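Researcher: Here's a chain I'd like modeled. Treat it as a single chain, no partners, no ligands.
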Amino acid sequence: MQKKEVKSPRAVELPICPFCDGKVNYTSWITHKIFQMECESCGAHWRTGLKESSQREFYVELTKSMSNGKGREFLSQKLSLEFWRDMIRERIRI
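Model: Modeled as a single isolated chain. Structure tokens:
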């Protein structure tokens, strides 16, 4: 019997990698606001969460940089989703 290849769905929040423009897919979910994503091209990983505040703000944290080390300066920083989207927009403009 052949094994069916399961492809993770494309991430809606961050569909394109801000480092290499590769496709970003979900890897696991805990809740609708807490999940993990991975770039299929460069191997960068992100994890989402909620900040410990009264507003429980959503954040995206880089947990693994590109395979070549690019993006290390953003590791373990709880940054807004808008920060990562702006990074993609800047890449598109260039």
